[in-house]
Amino acid sequence: MQALIDLFWSKHAELLNAIDRGDAAAMARLDRELDPLLKAIFESQASDPASIQAQFQFALDLLNEEADDGGCVRRNGYLLQTLVERYVSPEIQQSGRRREQPGADTGSAIGDVTVGGVLDDALLNRISDRVMVIAPGYRVFYSNEMNASRHDLPREALIGRHIAELVGIHRFRQEFKENLDRCFAGESAAFTYADQLNGQTIVIHCRMSPCFSGSSQLIGALVVMQETADRRRRSSAA
Hints:
By secondary structure, this protein is of the alpha+beta class. 55% of the residues lie in helices and 21% in strands. It folds into 2 domains: 2-84, no CATH class; 103-237, PAS domain (Beta-Lactamase), CATH 3.30.450.20.
């Protein structure tokens, strides 16, 4: 897997050089060579954790590399989604079946959003809080329905987007980035900020913790956002 990825990046660098030179023939040739490499990397069904991690890291690197091209971002977000459906969704389904067994805990406490270390999608879509998983590289890996509805987008449209697009570049730099980095390093974090929603001020309590797959690979940061009314504003008005 890593050999294919290394070959792709080598060809990708050649393509960028060809673009700089304006070499149309080389660009056409390299495009033809890159497409089957991309297909081989993403269609490969890896079985060992290192190869699976390499596939996810490649998808995130590609998203970051081509972030300025809207068409490439949509394509790369789709490719990342295929990896999620291949490796993460089956684990979610298995955890859901375990949860439905007699005697299984069916509580919906906000802290209990994983089963055996695996994201419980059914539970995350029942709670009223906004939930995301942000991968290293600060791009959305997962979103529950409540979070997607806040952005008036289907969940799949959020996959691969940079978190700064959703919270604003200033808030990303001032609050989210440092706390996400702490989660990627294995720590937990929490902070509170105010935002505008439908012309009203709301307070968002944001909690972050490291998120792992069932194979104990770090996926990213689990972000839980709880919204409450701004009591300070009401008290001031009174």
